[in-house]
Design a protein that fits this description.
Helix content: 40-55%
Structural class: alpha/beta
Distance between the termini: 52 Å
Length: about 325
């Protein structure tokens, strides 16, 4: 892969505090990208000016590999999903790397990920682990995969071509760690606002092509008070609180997401395997069941037991953890 083949989709919203460090880590990659496409969502803190200054600063340091910067400034906020849609839709490179505004990439991140795509023409999307750091960039002693409780079984399934089965249970693709082929956008666009952009890109890629994961931490994933989406491993008390918490619209929203996914995959015709569509249909049935559970905990016992015997809690959720939550959560 050469420098002209990679675009970076960088989205900002009042991100000036950490943006210079992130932009520098992008521009000074051992394999620099062709361009950064920055979509700014109505920032009021001079984020765009910070990004422009950082790109110019890097160009002076590295005259032979200057990175182009193209900027979209939204007067009215598009919010996260549509802001990323705007950025990735404008990218011109064969590969598109997603970037948050407050992380730091290790110097050879793009080189290592581009090499994986060059080695495997069928690879459609690749994501990685990340080192969790605090606002000052100090390590928190754990990685993203540790916080998400990613299991060896899940990683092996992704490596062996079964990423769709993993992602149908839960999303493991964090956008800040992700690179994908631009060809994915043919099937993934437009991005539905009901889904987070990274989980949608991940599951569409897994349904239509090959997805893989690098288990190395190739970015510092900053955790701070302004994170829109962060990462933290739940403690046992956290898990108990979630099991007893109100379900709200959780299961209904998940059912709607599954229905949107099914409709999109059906629209792709024979490019999606029949068994993939069958799995998503099962996910819809399961989430509709969970959304319709009665308020009475006692009245849920028999239906939940029957549903557990179908295997759908294991196929489309967290197994026993989902059973426990459905038995004890409030409505």
């Amino acid at each position: 892969m050469s420098a002209i083949d990679i675009s970076v989709a960088l989205c900002t919203h009042n991100g000036a505090r950490f943006l210079r460090e992130q932009v520098r880590s992008i521009c000074l990659q051992t394999l620099p990208p062709r361009e950064i496409v920055l979509s700014d969502d109505a920032s009021r803190d001079g984020s765009v000016a910070v990004a422009r200054a950082a790109v110019e600063e890097c160009a002076l340091e590295r005259l032979d590999a200057a990175v182009a910067l193209r900027v979209f400034e939204n007067a009215t906020p598009l919010r996260v999903v549509k802001n990323f849609e705007q950025a990735i839709g404008a990218c011109r490179g064969e590969l598109i790397a997603l970037s948050d505004q407050d992380d730091v990439w290790v110097p050879d991140r793009l080189a290592r990920m581009a090499a994986a795509f060059a080695h495997d023409p069928a690879l459609l999307l690749l994501h990685t682990d990340a080192r969790l750091v605090d606002a000052g960039g100090q390590g928190l002693g754990q990685t993203l995969f540790h916080a998400l409780e990613v299991t060896p079984v899940e990683l092996e399934r992704i490596h062996s071509g079964r990423a769709f089965d993993v992602f149908l249970r839960r999303n493991l693709v964090t956008g800040a760690t992700t690179v994908f082929r631009r060809s994915l956008l043919t099937d993934a666009m437009p991005l539905p606002v009901e889904w987070v952009h990274d989980e949608w890109l991940g599951i569409i890629a897994a349904a239509t092509g090959r997805v893989d994961v690098l288990e190395d931490a190739l970015i510092d994933y900053r955790q701070h008070e302004s994170n829109q989406i962060g990462a933290r491993r739940d403690t046992f008390p956290d898990k108990v609180r979630k099991a007893l918490a109100s379900r709200g619209r959780t299961h209904l929203d998940r059912a709607i997401k599954a229905e949107l996914l099914l409709a999109r995959l059906q629209s792709l015709g024979d490019r999606v395997a029949p068994d993939t569509l069958e799995k998503v249909s099962g996910k819809v049935v399961h989430q509709r069941f969970r959304a319709a559970l009665p308020a009475s905990r006692w009245a849920r016992c028999l239906p939940v037991l029957r549903e557990a015997m179908t295997g759908r809690y294991d196929a489309f959720g967290r197994g026993v953890r989902g059973v426990v939550r459905d038995l004890f959560e409030s409505v």
